[in-house]
Design brief:
The chain is of the alpha/beta class. It is built from 17 helices and 19 strands.
């Protein structure tokens, strides 16, 4: 949504010219890997019910959970981990996790490091990401390198380029912020601009043939005077994608956007309705579509509070983010201004509305999923933990917020099949977090990660302040 900033320009510039220096590791595979891992006397979170199963012994071998028992399990050669006082939860899923962006304040003028972003997700226990927008030259190559194990990071589902109206978001931003020598390349590789049903169909077929996991459609105006995709064009894109077994997700901003996108047949709303309070009589209409929504409250919070005084970093932000970047948010350089100030200022009075909209939709039966949308002040990995906190402010219990970032998200990504991740069950993929305490009572416990396992592989976490040593 708010990739309408100089950060998007920096991201595209870096992708085109290869700028940026390598960042810290943050995560490494433990070497040598044990033949198995046995976690003893641990509380297992059943995310389906939100209840804890106490004093369990969990055996992991290969990439799977092999056994969960209340009695000792024979496990010759397995590494033993004491789980007393800890909780075992599924790896987290970020349903709006851009990996190609830059989260520093725009006045620093930094370049993004996509591989560092991926490691930052994993450091924070995010083992799966839906990346709903990136350059077509990067999105699928990066996803496939992750699958081959060439780089370390979460499992990624990628959308690639955005389908938008001709001149629609984010095209005006790219045209305004990018120099010509990047603009000519970036705009056609980051977007597909369509004016007619035929153009929309062609774009959908092209994106499907690239191997996209979902297709992202922009049904919102940023800035407010930008063109918006017509409903017949929107419907043509969705239908053409469906014939290629590709689901469409929609970036929305208003109630009208949400309804138009739903009527076209999209499978997921990206962002809550953030521009207005949803009219009371529209709540039941939206719920009747049975479409899940990725609320992304945190990204709106980040922009609404930009230049509003010091930001208090979370523990995970201190561990995963450069201290100079965190400190840079506290003092805005003299003379700095942004052309998006009116848009940012329009967000501030709406802060209670975002939570209220989520609360009312959820009460009506809409499934809320967790997603962070990394960009200015929204850091890959730490931001998902912030988002879970915002969801509790919108009425979800800690256990329900965790479910929004595990089982419910996994069910969407599995597209009608039984997901093999997102829960702690025998036979499921071993993407797991051992956290200190009970996150169903204290959500902050979710950020106190004692052990990180992805695909059955133990991952060493290395905070920035101890780079080169063990966490």
């Amino acid at each position: 949504m708010l990739r309408a900033s100089s950060l998007l320009a920096a991201a595209v510039a870096a992708a085109v010219v290869g700028c940026g220096k390598p960042g810290p590791d943050l995560v490494r595979r433990v070497e040598p890997q044990p033949p198995g891992i046995m976690i003893t006397d641990v509380a297992v979170l059943d995310v389906a019910t939100g209840t804890l199963l106490p004093h369990r012994n969990v055996l992991i071998a290969g990439d799977r959970i092999k056994a969960i028992e209340s009695v000792p399990i024979p496990a010759s050669g397995a590494a033993l981990v004491d789980g007393a006082g800890a909780t075992l939860v599924p790896g987290l899923i970020d349903m709006h996790g851009h990996s190609g962006g830059e989260s520093a304040p725009p006045w620093l003028g930094g370049f993004p490091d996509a591989e560092l972003n991926l490691r930052s997700f994993l450091y924070c226990g995010v083992t799966t990401v839906l990346d709903p927008g990136d350059m077509d030259s990067d999105a699928f190559e990066r996803r496939d390198r992750l699958r081959r194990g060439e780089i370390l990071g979460p499992h990624v589902y990628a959308a690639g380029p955005l389908v938008t109206a001709r001149g629609g978001h984010p095209v005006p931003i790219l045209n305004d912020l990018l120099p010509w020598w990047i603009r000519w390349y970036a705009v056609p590789h980051y977007t597909r601009q369509v004016d007619t049903p035929e153009e929309a169909q062609a774009a959908a077929v092209e994106i499907a043939e690239m191997g996209a996991d979902v297709m992202k459609l922009v049904v919102d105006r940023v800035p407010a005077e930008a063109p918006r995709i017509r409903t017949d064009v929107l419907a043509a894109a969705v239908e053409a994608a469906r014939t290629r077994h590709l689901r469409a997700v929609a970036h929305i901003g208003t109630t009208e956007d949400a309804i138009d996108a739903a009527r076209s047949g999209i499978a997921l709303w990206m962002h809550g309705v953030y521009r207005e309070r949803i009219p009371d009589d529209a709540i039941a209409t939206l719920a009747g579509f049975h479409i899940p929504m990725v609320a992304t409250i945190g990204v709106f919070e980040s922009y609404a509070m930009l230049q509003q005084g010091p930001r208090e970093p979370t523990a995970l932000e201190r561990q995963a983010v450069d201290p100079a970047t965190l400190a840079a948010f506290d003092e805005v350089p003299d003379g700095y201004d942004t052309k998006f100030r009116p848009f940012i200022e329009s967000l501030r009075p709406l802060r209670p509305v975002w939570r209220e909209n989520v609360r009312r939709l959820r009460a009506a039966g809409v499934t809320i999923l967790a997603g962070s949308d990394p960009q200015t002040g929204v850091f890959p990995g730490p931001a998902l933990h912030r988002e879970l906190g915002y969801l509790t402010e919108a009425g979800l219990s800690p256990a329900e917020a965790i479910r929004a970032a595990t089982l419910d998200a996994a069910r969407f990504l599995a597209d009608g099949r039984e997901p093999d991740f997102g829960t702690v069950e025998v036979g499921k993929r071993a993407d797991l977090l051992l956290v200190d305490g009970d996150p169903t009572q204290d959500l902050a416990a979710l950020s106190r990660i004692k052990l990180l396992i992805q695909d059955g592989v133990a991952i060493q976490r290395i905070p920035r302040n101890v780079q080169g040593g063990a966490s």
